[in-house]
């Protein structure tokens, strides 16, 4: 008998971003004086907002005094944060959630990786191609077959509907890596499909704070019938620069049932058994994101990155390249003049000192594309544009 | 086809500690003026040590400046913390680990719950009975059969060796809930067993900071041959009051192989795919635990809880009760005069206003016992002892 989980052998050798980090490290060692610009991994660069910093300091001080110290919190997150999320994130869009439909976590990567545990290993799973690799890898590790739904320039990067019924459907909008957002009409088509086939939609809205177009939905629950079929994931990482603090949340509505059973108490049970909540100061920091000053400061951060995205988009276009995304998202999806995005990664690193992410890492239909992120420093982003323009 | 993970139905209705929290909440609502003493869930009550608080504030300030801000860290934890763990935790016991054998996490509950993912659902698992429910529940959720190894006063709470070969063996020493520690000789027996049968030992040493007897091993790697068969888990929760900060680590030695394959890169792959590291300020806080002033302050905290344990132990003994644990651990394991520990929970709550944990919640061989924790306030602990003594 094999004692190991043999599904691990279905994964490619390394998690994409770890592999790229090693490539860059090797290059850096070989060229210690190279002036590298990192527009690869989608990590923020602006410091935390002053209101967030103040909330962290206050919470740390509370942890220093016996009368205000907090030990274990609720696995699902403190009520103050779940209330702030409802009021700050959902109420403005006319969405009313119950407090116990919101589950605070240490980030959407964990939630997206773990939530599939609620389902049978024999479930049929569909994910967009290209997309964030965690959806695929976590399902492969659990032994599931994964159906890829091509998202190409021909279909405006709205993944095709599955041609055979599926049980789970992962969507990400605005999408990582294509930087494009689903319209209300496109999203409604997936919802209609899900309601017809009893499919559960896992909706990753990590980048919804970057939407500019007021017509585009910020939450899937703005659409009719979503509560019966969709789980929504949202992270503070890109919305408020929390990549180094670790906080996000998942919404599992009571109305969502599979085989007649509600998923909400199952996720609660899973989290109570294998998770112990998020650091108290971090939850206070997340709460501060929705405060009056927090909102203003965070809006300025988002605007900063949006302007970087504009510079990248217009710079690449001016240099004659075909480029997508960057208007409703912090990602640029660059159609390469070559079919080999890994070779292009090496070339861009070597010729321009610019680090991006080869599209093939996000799925077979990402081949021939390249992802750049808008999370860099303004001047470095400008410098990257001018180096790329000179690449010829 | 069932689309849900049907193994969830093998779990009891609720995670033990959540269920007890609800019982207490219901009692509190019905008796709003009751003066309750909480010695149930093993949560610390002393505030964080000053050196830890200072490290948190410094790290938060770093997050406020562009030149020192940190976004995503390594999934495995920052090198500074892994180095501090090696120097502070292992070097003093003559154990030399490679930096990449240590994996920082947001707590041992997560690690212990997640690590079983590396193994086949058909693996045979043995766990002590009674023990921390996470070992059992996480394996039931994955569809494995779990063999219980009775740990009773007759065998000095050292779980019996499995009578049929097992692939995974969970041990916890000092044990939660019995408060007893495995001797070097007992631990060596498990190691010999594991080496003979190719068993992997999952060794939870969450409470090793509470050991007083210098002869008892603090780490399983102090024993010969452990690296080839054992994974060790350690948490800052009880060692340094981090229950509200969330930090721990797992050690997966390179020498540990299953079916000829090293587990270390598999755990790295799992963590890279489904986890995104621990908040930077929390990692700095954990590092500070091993600083010169940190050690002194933490030692004083441990001594405070150890003294509570002594008061509980001697107080219960003086009241004529049979009690175990409390000398090498922050838990007291009270042999009840009744076989029904759930009924005793209600009685103790109602008559004394003291909240403990019914032994049956930790496994069938926990029935007839009751767990009290030493993590309370000194005066409240004294008060609990005198109320229990008056119970008669």
Give the low-confidence spans of chain A: none
Number of strands of chain A: 15
Order of helices and strands of chain A: HEHHEHEHEEHEEHEEEHHHEEHEEEH
How would a textbook summarize the main sheet of chain A? 7 strands, mixed
β content of chain A, as a range? 5-15%
- Looking at the chains present, what oligomeric state does this protein adopt? homodimer
Adjacency order of strands in the biggest sheet of chain A: 2-8-7-6-5-3-4
Number of helices of chain A: 12
N- to C-terminal distance of chain A: 57 Å
Shape of chain A: globular
What structural class is derived from the secondary structure elements of chain A?
A: alpha/beta
Q: Which chain pair shows the most residues in contact? A: A-B, 78 and 77 residues
Q: What Rg of chain A do the Cα atoms give? A: 21 Å
Mean pLDDT of chain A: 95
- Helix content estimate of chain A: 25-40%
3D architecture notes:
The structure is a homodimer of 392-residue chains. Chain A is 38% helix and 15% strand. Chain A is of the alpha/beta class. Chain A is built from twelve helices and 15 strands. The model of chain A has no long low-confidence stretch (mean pLDDT 95). In chain A, strand 5 (168-172), helix 6 and strand 6 (200-204) form a beta-alpha-beta unit. The first copy, chain A, has helices at residues 16-30, 50-62, 79-90, 108-114, 133-141, 184-197, 236-240, 264-274, 280-289, 292-318, 341-352, 378-391; strands at residues 37-38, 102-105, 125-129, 146-150, 168-172, 200-204, 230-235, 248-251, 257-258, 261-262, 322-325, 331-335, 354-355, 357-358, 369-373. The first copy, chain A, starts with 15 loop residues before the first helix and ends with a helix. The first copy, chain A, is globular, with a radius of gyration of 21 Å. In chain A, strands 2-8-7-6-5-3-4 form a seven-stranded mixed β-sheet, sandwiched between helices. Chain A has a four-stranded antiparallel β-sheet with strand order 11-12-15-14. Chains A and B meet through helix 2, helix 4, helix 5, helix 8 and helix 9 of A and helix 2, helix 4, helix 5, helix 8 and helix 9 of B.
